Amino acid sequence: MLDRYIIVIIIIVALIPLIIPFLVPELVQVITALYALLYLLSLVSVSFVLSLFLIPAWKGERRLFILALSSMLSFAVLGLLISIPKARFAGDNLESIYSTFLELSATSPVLLALFLGLYFPILSFGIWKLRREIAFINLREIIFATVFTLILGFITAVAINTSPHVPEIRDYLSVSLILDILTIFVYTVLIQLYRGTESKAYYSIVFAFTLFRFLGDIISLFGILAYGLPAVFYSLAFVSVLAGLVHVYKRDIVILDYAEVLEEKDRISELYATTKELQEILSIINKMLRHDVKNKLQVILGYIEVFLPERKDQYLEKAINAVGEVNEYLEKIRSLERALSAGIDPLKPVNVRKVVEDVLSFYEVPHAIHGSCFAFADESLYSVIDNIVNNAIKHGRTDKIDVYLSQFEDDCEIRIVDYGLGIPPEIRRRIFEESFTVNDKTGTGIGLYVVKKVVERYGGKVWAEETKPRGATFVIRLKAPREKEKKSLNIS
Question: Dihedral of the CA atoms 219, 224, 230, 231 (nearest 10)?
Fold first, then answer.
């Protein structure tokens, strides 16, 4: 619906200078000198009304852009409305009317503020956008914009030195030209930055507007006022705004933000890494279900088949033990699920001593806990401690476990010491690898892999050492809250 209104508005604006002389010739005769300025006012007003329509329709940076453009157009509309009544008595030719208009713009504080102030909304947006994307601007774009604006600056310097105008008009036009050049520089850089994208259309609107204004200002400064020629360029400036707004609206062009693109790229990279890890873990789960659990179920079925005709309790007991092992495998899968979810929710300070106490309370092996510490973790820390303790009892055959907790400024160290069979030096570095196991009959080797994955998600490290005279020591280093953080969180 809005697209249809825009087309109608453009047709009306284009026909205004053609139909008015035929419809009301006597009116045109009275206001011959003001005709061009009135057309300029109608052009600016239509552009302003269109920008107001687009403010609620656009979001994000597009809304900021149209707000800046709308503010600029509002200054122009107010300036023209104030100046036209004062200029209507200037004479009956375009040169005299423009001379009066120029004098009013330079000497009236209100008009001076409006016509110079219209630069600041679009200039502020351009500088804000450059500052936001400064990391993506290269030297070539700066050099091109600098050379172009230096050429415009040279032309301006020549015009200032040769201008026939009185100081007030010369100063007004000089300031206007400086703002023209500064705006052209900013938007030239933005056009170069986005030259391969549709987003450059937005910056081209301001660039074209400012370039036409520069031509109007420079011609005025040189004193070339015949036939109101500067007003032609000012009209072209606002025509470019109207045409540009129609173009970006009809094409529904978005404003590209390289900073947001980079953030989105990082987010997608993290998502890809998470998905890849999910595939890896699902592959492990699939392997466990297909190989270990399936084999155990076949063993259970075999024991039951033997038990039914012979009714010997030893086969039933073996079947029950095998069921327990299947349950253990399912717990490993649950640990993997916890490992996967770790890092999704924000980590929080956890009382490691309490976690160790809770885990060891399920085991009958004698144990002692020394010290305490807090670490950034989540519920998966229970799986970490449980897997190491279970590994020490089941595979290490330890008859005792000692846990030493130490709090440093930035780290919490957990040392889980067993006095069992120990870990041969040649395989100590491999024990955290996926599915590594010394004996396929004793398990999947997934437990310590889960430990490694969870600890890495916490931003920590885990490794194994030798216990003298025999046994193994697992060391975990996790990030710890500092004293200030502990006080703010009421941790004691």
Answer: 170
Q: Phi, psi at residue 71, to the nearest 5°?
A: -65, -40
Tell me the C-alpha distance between 2 and 4, whole Å: 5
Rg (CA), the chain: 39
> How confident is the model at residue 295, as a pLDDT?
60
Judge: domain 345-492, CATH 3.30.565.10.
yes
Cis-peptide into 25, omega within 30 deg: no
Q: Between 309 and 145, where is the model more confident?
A: 145
DSSP 323-392: HHHHHHHHHHHHHHHHHHHTTTSPPEEEEHHHHHHHHHTT--S-EEEEE--EEEE-TTHHHHHHHHHHHH
Sequence ranges of the domains in the chain? 2-256, 258-341, 345-492
Tell me: pLDDT of 401 over 50.
Answer: yes
Burial class of 426 by CB neighbour count within 10 A (0 to 12, 13 to 18, 19+): exposed
163-202 core/surface letters (b: 16 or more CB in 10 A; e: else): bebeeebbebbbbbbebbbbbbbbbbbbbbbbeeeebbbb
Span 289-303, average pLDDT: 66
List pLDDT tens digits, range 428-453.
778 887 666 655 444 555 678 878 88
State phi, psi for 462 to the nearest 5 degrees: -140, 140
The reported pLDDT for the residue numbered 487 is: 58
Rounded-to-integer distance, Cα 17 and Cα 123, Å = 32
Phi–psi pair at 460, nearest 5 degrees: -110, -170
**Intra-chain end-to-end CA distance of the chain, in Å:** 65
Q: What pLDDT is attached to residue 227?
A: 65
* Cα dihedral 149/154/157/161 (nearest 10): -160
pLDDT at 105: 84
Per the document, the length of the chain is 492
DSSP letters, 281-320, are HHHHHHHIIIIIIHHHHHHHHHHHHHHHHH--HHHHHHHH
Q: Are the C-beta atoms of 444 and 332 separated by less than 8 Å?
A: yes
Mind listing the pLDDT tens digit for each residue in 87-146?
555 555 667 777 777 888 888 888 888 888 899 999 999 999 998 888 888 888 899 899
